[in-house]
User: Fold these one by one.
Assistant:
Number 1:
Amino acid sequence: MQQALQKTNDLLKEVREFLDTSRTYLDEILKEVTAAEKENGTRQAELDNEIEKIADDVDSSLLDLAEDL
Amino acid sequence: MPKEIHHNIKPEAVKPETTPKSPSETAFSPENKQRADRLGSSAKELIMGVFRSASEKIQDSRIGAKITAWFSGKITQGVEQKINALSAQKSTFEGKSAEHSAAPGKIEQEYADLEKLAKERGIPLDPNLAGKLNQEKKAHQQQVEKYQSQVKQIDEQLGSLSEKRNKYQEKRETAVGKICQKWEGKIAGNNAEKAAKEGALEKINSKLEEFNQNKGRLTDNIAELENMLSGISSKALQKEVQKAIKTQEQELKRLEKEERSFQKEKEGLEKSMDRLDRKNKKLERHIEKYKPKKAAGEAEPQMTRAGERAPVIRRAEEMTLQDVLASVQASREKRREQREGEIRKIAQAIYDARIVGKDNYSEAGITVPTSWDYVDNVLLKKENLTPGSPEATEFMKKWDWEQAEKIYEAKMKQEEQGLEEDYEERTEAGLRRRLGEQMKNKERFGYFVDQWNSYLSGKNRDLELRNVPYGELDQDFAPEEALEKIKNLLIKEKPQEQRRINVQAEIVRYLFQ
């Protein structure tokens, strides 16, 4: 029985260590995800701005042309 | 209340301290906090989702609508009409110039003939006649100069208009090519984010496996101790073992709780990856739809840099009016051929059904009877034709074609309707409807969604939406600023809802704290 209790204690110790590290591990994973999301978010916003600029540029050409008609 | 007054509402005017409230509506009241807590992180995700989805859809639909407008050709059509009118005028002036150029020669010839005749018959000619004729010739020469000058002016105008048209055509095609490249960039960005999430998902899955293993080990150990318990007679030892079981059960609960956190993040990642896939599919559809198409026989677009394709741009300078007309003609011819090809296929299918005596042939909601009984006893009988005769065969061939034409027209109509529906999907009305549908089941946010939808219907929504910092929503979401702006925009449209919006805004603000 003593052996069984010792085994239990070892198991508990192991599980507690696992639990203690799992939270940090999850935070680390989420940090990476957050960084990837942030990087892509910035990229998407930049690309949207560039698209807007291109579109505005053509719009102004169109207006110039319309005025010349 | 007149609308002008609503637009003058300053942000300060809607802040809680200047707005009388009932206790339940006070900013950060316990009740609001409770409500916010009940809504939890799913509310945060949902609200951010609404912002992101709305902004992306508006951006894409606006750019799509712009590209469609650029290619609708109304402006260039106007230029073409003007070019055509000027060309016709030029041709008239050239004709007149040629007439006047030829006139002096004719006059000289007539005068020579007259002089010869007068000499033969001994009739004296008017001594002033030669002078008068010279004046006439001079007048013709002046006309020639006048028309040639007008032709020159028209040439200059034509040159300028063609240049403008070509520049515009080139510019818009270049722009669409560039926009498509940016869309491709967006796809690549989403793929990079997805790859990072896939990596995270893999790690989470592996950790979830470890959770399972640990849970299994604890459960097995608990079972083992429980078995041992029945064989222990000492109360003290029994108590010791029971204590060990209880501790393990507590750890098991902790494991399960922590596992749920991993599970929740896993679900979030999977949803987010699905969203990225949907976004990419939408962008791919945009690229497919708008990317300048490769002209027949033209080489594949060359790769400029890794992963970047040079847009295929037809050299507009080389295009003449004849080129444009030839292209229109070719396109009409192609459409006619396509139409006939499609009809031929359907006519063949009807023939195949008829020849084996099938009851009918159905397509595009139209059912054509094809049984032998119908053909022989109704169709041919009506025409007084003998089944199997060459006349009957010829008649049936025409009949097959006519039925096929009807089916083809019905198919085209259905496709047009589909296109209209697709267009409707891309309009603001479509966006509002979809947002409405998306949120239908989220009744607790119903009010917020209504307000958001009514905001989307606002006249200056595009401009004002750009001022909302949703670009930062993903991570560094600035709720104060965003909420203040959104709230003010909403209030402009529905001033009577001011207090309710405030409560809603407080909940959102609390959630983002």
Number 2:
Amino acid sequence: MNTVFTGTLFDGETLTAHPIRFTIEGGRLISQSEGHELDVALADVRPSSRLAALPRYLHFSDGRIIETEESADLDALLTGGERAHFTALVHWLEAQEIVAAAGTLLLVAMIGAVVWWGLPVLARRAAMAVPDAIEKQAGQTALLTLNRVLGQSRLEYRDQYRVREQLTKLLDAGGLNVRPDLVFCSMGREFPNAFALPGGTIVISDELVALATDDGELAAVLAHEIGHWQKRHGLQSVLRNSTALLVVSGISGDLSTLTSFAGTIPFMLLQRGYSREFEEEADAYAVDLLQKASIDLKHFESILTKLQNVRPKTGQDFTYLSTHPSTAGRIQALRAAQSTARPGTKSAPDNSEKH
Amino acid sequence: MSEDSTPIPSSAEANTPLPPADIGDSEGPRGESVPPVIDPTPFPAEHPFFFHGNTREYFRIWIVNTLLTLLSFGLYSAWAKVRKRRYLRGSIELMQHRFEYLADPRRILVGNILVALMFLAYMVVGKVYPVVRFGALVVGLVLLPWVIVRSLAFNAHNTSYRGMRFHSRQTYGAAGLTFIGQFIFIIATLGLYYPAWVRNQKEFFISGHQLGDAFFRFESKSGPFYSAYLVSALIVFVVAIAGGSFIAWSTFNNGGHPPTTQQLIPFFILYGTGLFFSKQYVYARLFNHIWNHTQLDEHRFKATLSIKDWLKLQTVNLGAIIGTGGLLYPWAVMRSTRYTLDHLHFVAAGPIDKISRLGRRDGSALGETAAEFVGLDIGL
């Protein structure tokens, strides 16, 4: 049991290396090496903790140090320093291939969970905390970008009036005292579309107004967009995207990419629209608002059906329905909402007129 | 905080973000096959740095410590940092002996808590009195030299070689002058002073360091820094021109409409690649220049990094890190560190045994007094 260890002694005074042989017995570290005789109680020796196959260092209280490669054999003899059990456990964990493999899976799962569940929650909270002025500014930026792609509106005044009238009605019913700006435009190519931008700007295309021949249908579209605005879906999308970017930037350590991406966010909104989850939320909001305004949900159903029918067969830019829940699914959800609605709402007079 | 990823030779560890060597054939410490060097060697003698780091080993350490950090909600991060750094520094061998990293994680934890508390105070106070946010900027400027000097001192004091600790003895005044005074001068010169500033930073870092009673010295003119940054600026310029033309071209193709995000993807790739290459180019070029102009008393260093190989290596690293969502980061660190150390030599002008504990010669107790009560350790 009297293992003889070999190592190097440094006196802490110079860089000179002194080869040394030593033994550990009876709780003492003993060396007979010529000129470097040692007889020190192990309690006065502070060993460095084990780490992979690195050399161990035995620090003596007088500043002398022994460096030795015989780490594993030494371990059995050392009583260990402070918190020895914990570092021993960490060292053991670090030595296991199986721990590394399981750890990798766990890490991937944890990151996945954060991205899928954590980020949306954070994005929602952050979006709700953004001051109105900044929300407005974000909307302005988005509108500027949009304006470059949108055509001049050729909507007749009475049609514009129809839209405004429905908007007022909805706002009154919902008790909303901030009025969103309405922007009329033409999307060309017979594209019925509408957007809600941060800060309360609703962009609606002539084609959509033409399609919604019934005022109730128009109200349904507007209610849906008010939902996007009120739930701050625009900001949430921006934040979700930039958070994902933030993670990537954090890993690569290069934050400059973030700013380069920020400028393109309006394009992203324009192309992909909102996520399915946001659309469902906006639908639910719209149902609620329409019921408050005593507008029959069948109008919502009919405009959805109309949109479905004019939907381009091939996937193109600005596809209003591309990320939306399937129309069938939405209509089903609407019917479910209708059946649970109060009877009074159902039988309420439908005062929308056709033009 | 002003920092870039150019090398800071003060610490023996190559703390590059994306460091060199292969995962498969990287095993096998090469140091062991080297016969023991017996004096008398003719001087100057060139000694290589050996890197004993093993990718599998480091990956295991990295994953275990990263997970422990996450599971402890960050409390373990100080311990994780120390273990990872101990592994990196402890894997570097020079003249038969390794470097040792000695930091006490509890001190780093104190430093982390201090930083967290200051940030928290800033958030809370800033919420109540928004004006305070401007005041915080002033406080930050005052604190900056302290943070820099303490971090350097902590890092140096906790790195040792052959039982001798390094020291960093920079003053707050010098730090303030370098990082605040000269920074203002950069603004005044519209950035023209920047390369000279980088040079002065390096001098500030390196020349403040000692190993025992031996002094590190960095002596260089600003010219090489200017030419390195000139090339890097040219790379960015060419990319900007190419990127601008690309946008113009796609706008024209779109019939006047600005390009969509999908159409812009090649632009982002081009842009990112350009920035990446210019950054890595500067790193490799300055790495050689800085080490070749650094001395430890009369001893010198020799760096022979190949810019071309370095760019190749970092490109692969970046691809691997992005492709695996960061999981291959430890592999990249091992590769970079190994490549860097394979191209670094210590040129001893005489026996290094003469280097002694500071204060030993005049009998004073100077030397091991470097106070470290707060383990500030920012990534300079």
